[in-house]
Amino acid sequence: MMKSFLDTEVSIYNGVRDVYGTTCKLRAFLFDKKHLSEIERLRSLPTKEERNEIKKKLPQACISGVFAPMRKAENLITHSGLVCVDIDRKDNEEIENWGELKHELSKLPQIAYISLSVSGNGYFVIIPLRYPDYHKQQFEQLKRDFEKMGIIIDRACGDVSRMRCLSYDAEPYVNVEAIPYEGYYVEPLPIVNYQYSGDDVLDKVAKCCERIEQHCIDITGDYQSWFMVGCALASLGENGRQFFHVCSSQNQAYKPNECDKKFTNLLRTGKRIGVGSFFEICKDYGITFKDV
To answer: Which positions fall inside the Primase C-terminal domain (predicted)?
Structure first.
């Protein structure tokens, strides 16, 4: 018999200042009514500041897994296979049938749970993930899929360690047979223009990179190689950025954002290695600008 998402173990915390926490079954957290009077009082308060004073003292849970010893993304021990997203009324004022939103969302087979948020002014939605090891990529695509439906979800929910405040809904939607969401966002590769500039050095680099891309040659097989290629291309200033992406993208570990950040860092702090080192590395792989 398939395990219910409600029986998943998650980290729970005694308020926002508790960074160590304990664990419990998700159902124990979601259906906890011990703080109902506090939640009702919170919902009656007129200002966000007043509501936050109560909210930060209520139990919290990390719906996406178990963390130890402290609640940090890098301390994830076990992913729950779930992501929890917020749909706030203030971010979705264009939705005219707000009162029907829960019912409409319940028609999606990937949604396992829908409840009022602690303020009562929004919803939180729990969705099982097909690829929990790629939490961020799945969230990014999920965000885009909701946008296509005209719904804005809080982008902060992409943080795997994000805490969910205890809430209460007299009629939560529960689907223990929800199917895993399979969407996965892949960052588009930068488009490289290989039109030659008339600058002798840049044209030689462009010719080498064109061949690297055409033949899928990875000259950045390990971190040291990647670093050296980056330093050499950083000697070209911003002109080297697109070429660093070309070289990096031949490796399976390539991530456009990380590559971009690395190049920016190398522009500031990288070793003073000339572009000649790039040509030497290319030569080791049988690549020269003369051959292209």
So the answer is: 218-281
Give 106-113's long-range contacts (Cβ < 8 A, gap of 24+). 106/173, 106/175, 109/175, 109/178, 109/179, 110/178, 110/179, 110/180, 110/181, 111/173, 111/175, 111/178, 112/5, 112/82, 112/174, 112/175, 112/176, 112/178, 113/5, 113/30, 113/172, 113/173, 113/174, 113/175
What's the full length of the chain, in residues?
Answer: 292
Q: 266 near 289, Cβ under 8 Å?
A: no
Number of structural domains the chain divides into: 2
Preceding peptide of 69 cis, ω within 30°? yes
CA torsion sign for 19, 24, 27, 33 is: negative
Residue 174, classed as helix, strand or coil, is: strand
Q: Which helix (H) or strand (E) holds 62?
A: strand 60-62
- Residue 185 belongs to a domain: no
Structural domain boundaries, residue 205: 200-284
pLDDT at 292: 46
Tell me the pLDDT tens digit for each residue of 162-173: 999 999 999 999
Residue 253: inside a domain:
yes
Residues 120 and 262 in one domain: no
Contact 176, 112 (CB under 8 A): yes
pTM, 2 dp: 0.71
Contact (CB, 8 A) for 199 and 236: no
